[in-house]
Fold this protein.
Amino acid sequence: MSKAKKRGKEIVTTISWKKALKRDWQLYLMLIFPLVMVFVFNYAAYPGLRMVFMDYKPAKGYDGSEWVGMETFIKIFKDKDFIKSLKNSIVFNFANLAVTFPMPIILALMLNELRYPKFKKVTQTILYLPHFLSWVIIGSVAYTMFRPSTGLVNVALMNMGLIEEGIPFLTEKWHWAVTYLLIGVWQGMGWGTIIYLAAITSISGELYEAAMIDGANRWKRMWHITLPGIKGTVVTLLIMNLGRLMGSDYERLDQFGNSRVKDFQYQLAIYIYEKGLAGGKFSMATAVGLFQSVVGLILVLASDKVAKKLGEDGLL
Amino acid sequence: MAKKKEEVVRGAEVTSDGSRAINKFRISDAIMMIIIVLLCATCVLPFIHIAAKSISGNSYVVAKQIAFWPKGINFDAYVSIFKDGSLTYSMGYSVWVTLIFTLLGMIVCTCAAYPLSKKRLKGKTVITFLLMFPMYFGAGLIPAYLLMSDLKLLDTMWVLILPLIYSPYNMLIMKTFFQANIPDSLEESAFLDGATNFQILWHIVLPLSKSILATLSLFYAVGRWNSYADNKFYVRTESLEMIQYKLSQLVSSASEAQTASLSEAAAVTSTPEVLQAAAIMFVTLPIICIYPFLQKYFVKGVMVGAVKG
């Protein structure tokens, strides 16, 4: 056994390129396909980033446009729209994390305590469903349910006499913010439980047995056994999510957008689309995209470091 | 009632072999079950409402009398959708695009994951880095748009397929699966028998990986089926738009101006609201129908993916 291991190690470290190609040429041949794809569709786009140092005009192209140095960056940081979208993105991403993150944990704890396997299975299947629906469907369903005058929720509340006129769930910015965030919770809550339920099953049953003999009730067991048992998973996922704080989901924002909630809905992805592709200010939109990518990368690297310091696996 | 009691007893039996069970049904059980049922209701009821609306008579819908049960049942709205034809065409087209996308995606994913799952592969670290980096750093919308323009892909079907078939995330899941589930010894012995890498992959590794192949095919298919932003960015020709984008235009035009944008002939028989409900159902039904069968594969995939990434 140890001999075989040693031999294996030797092969890994000392083999020459010639030998490696001879033995594994088929593997290298396979790799050509994905490598071509990333080079053509990902890496080939990077040179386009040079336009952040230009005043890029679509009609003139890269060769005809003027170099302007750092001017574009100065311009975007003076741009009120950019500041607004950046502020909105950060605030909403933090709020989104704060309300979206705990729900799957709570739900997983509850599902884990359920006593009827069949009931558990059916409810789980139903709770996973929103994860598979597109933002278009979720958005159109939300508008159908929440329209002020004809939406089912408002109609029901009015019929019960609880309100006199429809609540503008999706057409007034503060209501919109709450609805938007809660729909995010709704969409991700069931799916998020999977990973926690898996972590819970790996907790030793003996712990629960011992606790029960000692007279610990359900809540005590939950608090002292289950929660500490999934702490590692919670920390890892939390850190992973921190790495995404600079993100911006265009489809989600687009679906819930309307003229009356622009103040809050105007986030980075919308800025980039509206200023850039729709508005023709290519350099500014690209600079904002680059800013977003760089900050995102820094966040991912930092959160990976933190994860590793805490003794977790890390992401990279 | 009697049946319920029986279930309770059976439930207790099933769990009593597990160490966590207490055999008494408590109030806390009831509370948790109620909460979970309520949450499930939020997932199901909206769709029942929309389904009921889509087959109800116009006057009932206008009078806001439809909750979860249809009144004045008719299928006019669906007939309009089929007569109009633009949504049905788009549905067929979307299925076609999704199939090609999934097939090519699985091929490119396997081509990347299998070699990289081999410890002995020389240059593995560099290649892995090259293939993973785009996941963490994207060039952004505008450079991507100009690239598509340079590649002459704008406004073609392929712009919806080629840029996304290689997915670092899916590759990582597949690679992790290969490393964890295919024993090296199996391949070694085949290697000694004179099998080539291709033969080993085709005859040994892939047959052993059916579950992950199914899972990732679904990830690819659902991902393509659900997203529409690239339709909006890259495609102008209406016949090249996928169904999600069609629905999004239909609904947004209906919610802003209160008129559905299906052809005028179609709009005569049903009010925009009914028509819109039918369109939502038309697009949602395929997912809801196949979803229960696919769900377990997804769960598996998430478990594998959870190992890393």
